[in-house]
């Protein structure tokens, strides 16, 4: 993809998710979610992105399996478009949080988005490491259930069977598609150190380290909230976040 195509795809993605957000705002929301309507729209929009990206990322390797053998140079237009599309979402979500949420409540996610936009941006512009970026996007398989969990909580369905089933699937996919994927990516980066420029290696290593710490912390919170304590205080805190 040429730079103009990257800009067009990214810009279209930003516009698409703004429309999705606006559309969700026009739909009926549970009464309990109306107390924080922005959060409801934001999480629902993130759910849409996760669903699209999860399916798209899996299809990238299904349609172009040789990409798994060379994550640096080998990629398809289909996978390149996915990374550009996701950059657009992260730009949209970054701006949405900056405009609607206090910095003290969102700085972790804002920092995460800056790291992702930077890494993905370098990838699509240089047309290198696109496969590595697609591997990173496999974590969105878990994000589908992670966002659904938040949606169910906001809808006051934390005591439902659906929530319990989703909690189990969420924790399972968290280990497989988030923790294991990050561990595999870190291992790949170390093993291919000689093939990766110092700047890219440093940026990737720092990014992996930050993501690993953030994901371990989140995993502990999920485990404590859904399986160990189930405290009312945790649930209330999450609703307010």
UniProtKB/TrEMBL annotation:
It is a multi-pass membrane protein. It is found in: Membrane. It comes from the Eukaryota. Residues 35-231 form the TLC domain. It holds the Pfam family TRAM_LAG1_CLN8. Its main location: membrane. The keyword Protein biosynthesis does not apply. Keywords: Membrane, Transmembrane, Transmembrane helix. The chain crosses the membrane at residues 46-65, 77-95, 115-141, 162-186, 198-223. This is TLC domain containing 2. One of its GO terms (biological process) is membrane assembly. The keyword Membrane applies. PANTHER family: CT120 PROTEIN, TLC DOMAIN-CONTAINING PROTEIN 2. It comes from Fundulus heteroclitus (Killifish). InterPro entries: TLC-dom, TLCD. GO terms for cellular component: plasma membrane.
